[in-house]
Amino acid sequence: MSDQEIDLYYVDSAIGDDTVQHISPGRSIPGSRGIWNIVKFLPGGNGDDVQVQNLLYEPGVVGPPLCRAVKRIVRQKSPARDNSLMIKRSLLCMTRANHSVETETSKASNAIPVVRMLCWYHDAFYVYIAMEYCAIGNLRDWIHDYPFPGETWAREVTKQILSVLVELNCSQLAHRNIKPSNILIASALPIQIKVSDFHNAKWMAEDDGLRTQVGNLDYSAPEVRGERDHAGRVTTEYNTSVDMWSLGIVLHEILSGSHPFGRPGHPRYSESRYQEYLGSDSGQISLSLLEGNTSQYGKTMVAYMLSRDPAARPTPLEALGDQWFLKDIRPV
Ligand SMILES: Nc1ncnc2c1ncn2[C@@H]1O[C@H](COP(=O)(O)OP(=O)(O)OP(=O)(O)O)[C@@H](O)[C@H]1O
Ligand SMILES: [Mg+2]
């Protein structure tokens, strides 16, 4: 792992209760210099959270206040729980994910489909990762507030997430925490999403496989959870197809308002329905919650993504070439 790549984004900072002042000049990227005011906290999982900060002062910057989001990760220092390597890895994955989706045009317009990292800093207790702020919020809250957005909308969002997964795969990155709260809405009309949170991401080239149980159980592929695979074997290794499983769950939630292993209207899964699916002979997921609302192509897409056998799931490129994206959508 190259520390240099991460060091480029590091800024020395004086961190107070309400403000943060960046001391070292940092890079010339807006959002990595000046004095920032902490205006609110967005609660997250695992004791981490996200601060929303407004720019108070930056030499030479005038105009509307700039806003950023800062993920605050608790530093675990005891030898048994030391997470410094994990934090370094997530910083590295975030910088690589940013670079993987950057083109000359997107750089110029500052619009990339991955949340842009601005800088990072730390104190004795936390590591802080500053990134662009998506004021509209996340997909979890959006589909809660505007349920059943329709299949055309679902298709567009899925296409954008798949396009990011294509680039991540090319850079040998697995996100490992695709879920609605990590998909941010950059624009509502037209819908434009940004994939965020590379906290659990892994650069595959560093190792011969992925083994750690990470991410949120509701969205984790069976092989991540150490479940038996389709042939009854317990596997401890997995690959980037775990992101396709998670996307299948997200897509099901967008289309039906419910988790595929949950009860109608509930975005959380039930362990017994999940085990039922893993143990079923057919290997086919019951898509009863999609009945009536979703075209056959849409249902097939969800089932394809939620294949128990990781090798049977489509790659992001294969998924993008699926009939669902090419045909007229008519519910059956
Ligand atoms: N750049 C951002 N702009 C706007 N909201 C954000 C940004 N990054 C995160 N959030 C929101 O802040 C909240 C806390 O995020 P956090 O990542 O800590 O928790 P989470 O997404 O619920 O779980 P996880 O830690 O597994 O990713 C979430 O609602 C998330 O959508
Ligand atoms: Mg998150």
TrEMBL record:
Keyword terms of this UniProt record:
ATP-binding, Kinase, Nucleotide-binding, Serine/threonine-protein kinase, Transferase
**An annotated Gene Ontology molecular function:** protein serine/threonine kinase activity
Against InterPro entries, the record matches this protein to: CDPK_Ser/Thr_kinases, Kinase-like_dom_sf, Prot_kinase_dom
| SUPFAM superfamilies the UniProt entry points to | Protein kinase-like (PK-like)
Q: Which domain of life is it from?
A: Eukaryota
Q: Name one Pfam family in it.
A: Pkinase
| EC number(s) on file | 2.7.11.1
- Domain Protein kinase, by residue range, is 36-325
Classification via PROSITE patterns: PROTEIN_KINASE_DOM
Q: What is this protein called?
A: Serine/threonine protein kinase
Q: Which organism is it from?
A: Discina gigas
